[in-house]
Amino acid sequence: MVDKHYHCIENEVGVGNKIERVFNHWTLLFINVAIIVFVEATGMFFMRTGLIHLLAILFIVLGISRIFVHYDVYDQYLKPLIHGGILTLLIFAVSHVLEYFSYSFLYLPYDAIAANVVNLYLMGLLIIILSVEYFLKRIEKGSKILSPILYAGVSISGALTVLFFFKSDLVRLTAANWPVYGYSLTVFTIAFWGIRRLLRLRSHVTILVNFINYFLVSFVLISISAMLYVLNDFLGNVGIPYLQVMYISHFLFYGALSLMFLAFVRISHLGGVYEGLG
Q1: What is the pLDDT of residues 27-38, one digit of tens each?
Q2: Overall average pLDDT of the 85-99 stretch
Q3: Nearest to residue 85, comparing CAs of 111, 110, 115, 65?
């Protein structure tokens, strides 16, 4: 029975190594640049057909595939990050499915669609912070009051998503309406606290430095991507077309998911001993 278990782990590690060899730094950089060139060269095609969202789903599947490979060998400290990463990627997948469904079949107004994408992005970012906070608490470096606030934020994000899906006229993201300022402040605040918690984790768990460095940049890119949805009206007023704002937001999202994939590659090689804890 034990031999069978270790044989399964070896097979999973082998699959993981193959994925890493194919999707390394240079391959992912080439893929991201090629996507930007091809999408921009074809005008409205990717937006009109929904392929812009399919690409996002494919990047999400790539990230999930790496997290799942032999994740059961990670020790107790890493599992919250693993589970949080999987849940976050699933939420991001839902955001793109919901976005495509909302404008292609339900014909919801842009403001409601954008607000719901931002709601789900923020939910994913909050779950990442929760995972980091759980890790920090296990090494007695966490905050006593932050977790309840984060759980409340996740609940509010989910509730607003449902509300705006069924009552799309309740939100307007224009300069004349307060939600655009509320969302901007919220995105900035969550990004600020997420970066702070990740930096705190990096300072106390030095063996995770490479993982956290990738995740920090990914966190920032997703935050900027969310902010572009919020500020689309402002950017349109200064001459940046709606299509370009959406494309840039998605390009940043693809880059963020690529970095998340590379981050989990770093974490998959750690094993179960953390000399850097404390």
Answers
A1: 999 999 999 999
A2: 93
A3: 65
At 189, list the tokens: 């605040």
Model confidence over 251-270: pLDDT tens digits?
A: 999 999 999 999 887 776 55
Token pair of 128, please? 């990442």
Q: What pTM did the predictor assign?
A: 0.90
Tokens 């995740």 appear where? 215
DSSP the chain: -HHHHHHHHHHHHHHHHHHHHHS-HHHHHHHHHHHHHHHHHTTTHHHHHSHHHHHHHHHHHHHHHHHHTTGGGS-TTTHHHHHHHHHHHHHHHHHHHHHHHHHHTS---HHHHHHHHHHHHHHHHHHHHHHHHHHHHHTT---TTHHHHHHHHHHHHHHHHHHHHH-GGG---STTSHHHHHHHHHHHHHHHHHHHHHHHHHHH-GGGHHHHHHHHHHHHHHHHHHHHHHTHHHHHHTT--HHHHHHHHHHHHHHHHHHHHHHHHHHTT-TT--TT--
42-46, Cβ contacts within 8 angstroms, sequence gap of 24 or more? 44/243, 46/247
Residue with structure tokens 């963020």? Answer: 256
What tokens appear for 33 in the block?
A: 């640049």
